[in-house]
Specification:
Elements: H1 2-30, H2 35-47, H3 49-60, H4 64-89, H5 99-117, E1 122-123, H6 125-144, H7 164-196, H8 200-212, H9 214-225, H10 229-254, E2 257-258, H11 265-283, H12 289-308
Antiparallel strand pairs: 1-2
Length: about 300
């Protein structure tokens, strides 16, 4: 029964996040915010809503392992699974934006900061505040940047029939569904972990992180099919940035997050490795099927190692 509840609650969580994203896009377009800023910030932040809801709920329930594992797993899956598929299915990949020059720092810095923070075994409320400040710096960079690369396809948003009442109502509904879905998914995942003797870390880094990464997967594959690889890569960088800063930062503000890093060396090393691989690929413009296969192989190794510890 818990598994059924988990699947349904993840569906509610993702549907709620999708609703909230679309209404946020409509509001942004109503105020003539540039497509680049919408794509690089709003969509990236929006697709991180499930991670945020799940991790904050886990932190509130004093499940620090699950909160942190969700972020680590989501970031690993965003790069290995999502970008792996993007590179496999996209045609004529030739991004206009120089992601290495403009965005590689924002992919690496939060990971290094996170790894430094957990050396003492805890992400404190002060650490959480610093992570949130890092996200503010990222948003300021995006807004002030030349913003010539990422574009957002907004064909699904009907601005001719825009209604504040409808938009605000749907935004509230989406937010409520995100919160409810997160609460039930975390609780049911915890019950599953206890029933099968699986640690909350494993549940967080595999089951919850896969579910919360679905929005990034859907958005990025949709962008790749339209040959909007700029948007796909930018969404992943922005989402991982949001996961590491806003999600972890907010979770730490709710309750300080304790972690014994020595128990999770492989997962932490994989997080750092795939991030460095992302930077390497953007530096050498390796946007091809070979790169996609390489990323999926890394995903296979990560999942194989994880399954061996269940």
């Amino acid at each position: 029964m818990d598994f059924v509840i988990f699947v349904i609650s993840m569906g509610v969580l993702i549907w709620g996040a999708d609703t909230l994203i679309k209404q946020s896009e409509a509001i942004a377009l109503k105020f003539n915010i540039s497509e680049f800023v919408i794509g690089a910030t709003l969509i990236a932040l929006g697709t991180s809503l499930p991670e945020m809801a799940a991790s904050i709920t886990a932190s509130f329930n004093h499940k620090a392992d699950m909160a942190i594992a969700n972020v680590i797993g989501s970031n690993i899956l965003n790069i290995s699974l999502v970008l792996g598929f993007v590179f496999m299915i996209a045609k004529n990949i030739n991004p206009n934006r120089d992601f290495f020059a403009k965005d590689s720092t924002w992919a690496l810095v939060p990971v290094f900061v996170f790894l430094l923070m957990i050396i003492d075994g805890i992400i404190s409320r002060f650490d959480g505040l610093l992570l949130l400040m890092l996200m503010v710096a990222y948003v300021i960079f995006l807004v002030t940047d030349d913003a010539s690369g990422i574009e957002l396809e907004d064909d699904d948003i009907d601005m001719e029939h825009f209604s504040w009442i409808r938009t605000i109502t749907l935004s509230i509904v989406g937010l409520v569904l995100v919160v409810i879905g997160a609460d039930f998914s975390v609780e049911s995942a915890s019950n599953i972990a206890r029933q099968f003797g699986v640690s909350e870390w494993i549940i967080g880094i595999v089951m919850i992180s896969f579910g919360t990464s679905l929005p990034e997967l859907v958005v990025s594959i949709s962008a790749a099919l339209r040959n909007k690889v700029d948007m796909a890569i930018g969404n992943i960088i922005g989402s991982n940035m949001a996961n590491t800063t806003i999600v972890l930062g907010s979770s730490a503000l709710v309750n300080p997050l304790n972690i014994d890093a020595s128990q999770y060396i492989f997962d932490l090393a994989t997080l750092l490795f795939v991030t460095i691989i992302l930077v390497f690929m953007t530096a050498n413009k390796l946007y091809n099927k070979s790169a996609g296969i390489s990323l999926l192989i890394i995903l296979g190794l990560f999942l194989n190692h994880t399954m061996q510890h269940i």
